[in-house]
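Supplementary notes for students who missed Thursday's class. We covered one full example, reproduced here. Read the sequence, then the structure, then the short commentary at the end.
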Amino acid sequence: MQSKRHSLFEVVTGTAVAFLISLLVQQFIVDPLWHLHKSIFENLSITVLFTVVSVVRSYYWRRFFNWLNNKNNNSHVTHRNHG
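Structure (token representation):
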């Protein structure tokens, strides 16, 4: 089973890479294609907002599936011990 700390570390690390990619895509591809005129600070703010949402979502999804996996593993042990 994955610890809560490890789950958070994995999510933050993966999201940090996505953060940089998203910021660059928004600044150099999205803005020019849609003729948006935002400063790098505005793009950074938008990217930070979506990144925080992504980290929280990913962490809780991961913990939920970890809980399900642990629950299923425990129910198999319980059935074997009583069978």
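Commentary. Helices lie at 4-33, 40-82. Residues 77 and 83 are 10 Å apart (CA to CA). If anything here is unclear, bring it to office hours.
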